[in-house]
């Protein structure tokens, strides 16, 4: 799945280079875009089903800087799928150049009770995630 945007001035430091926390913000945005493309708006999931996907781990490795007004394409795919969690991998490209890559581990969580609780990913969603987000490194776990 692809998510594209242009770097804004507010995303950069005084030298016009992207400030690194923005890559984590963009990974989050790309994940929300990924789920919307599967027909599962994360906002509607929370509002209608009290389901969220908290991040329990995230990492990003930087290969080259991005600058103000660069056009960026984030390619996202599920790299690992478990019963209650998944790892989604993101690659950031400027043109054909890989400038950064990272991942998020998220847990399918119900907020319907007194406190948040991990819950199994629905079977139909798991199948969509496999179909739409498979990567070479994809693996299924328990």
TrEMBL record:
What name does this protein carry? Acyl-CoA thioesterase
- Lineage, uppermost ranks: Bacteria, Bacillati, Bacillota, Bacilli, Bacillales
What is the originating organism of this protein? Geobacillus zalihae
User: What InterPro entries does the database record attribute to this sequence?
Assistant: 4-hydroxybenzoyl-CoA_TE, HotDog_dom_sf, YbgC/YbaW
Q: Which family does it belong to?
A: Belongs to the 4-hydroxybenzoyl-CoA thioesterase family.
Q: Name one GO molecular function term.
A: fatty acyl-CoA hydrolase activity
Cross-referenced PANTHER family: 4-HYDROXYBENZOYL-COA THIOESTERASE FAMILY MEMBER, NOVEL THIOESTERASE SUPERFAMILY DOMAIN AND SAPOSIN A-TYPE DOMAIN CONTAINING PROTEIN (0610012H03RIK)
User: Which keywords belong to this entry?
Assistant: Hydrolase
């Amino acid at each position: 799945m692809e998510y594209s945007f242009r770097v804004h001035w507010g995303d950069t430091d005084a030298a016009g280079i992207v400030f690194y926390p923005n890559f984590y913000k963009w990974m989050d945005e790309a994940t929300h875009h990924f789920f919307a493309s599967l027909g599962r708006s994360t906002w509607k999931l929370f509002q209608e089903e009290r389901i969220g996907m908290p991040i329990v781990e995230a990492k990003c490795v930087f290969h080259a800087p991005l600058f103000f007004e660069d056009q960026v394409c984030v390619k996202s795919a599920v790299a690992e799928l478990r019963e209650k969690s998944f790892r989604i991998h993101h690659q950031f490209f400027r043109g054909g150049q890989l400038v950064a890559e990272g991942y998020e581990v998220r847990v399918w969580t119900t907020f319907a009770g007194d406190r948040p609780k991990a819950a199994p990913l629905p079977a139909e969603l798991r199948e969509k995630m496999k179909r739409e987000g498979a990567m070479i490194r994809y693996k299924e776990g328990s």
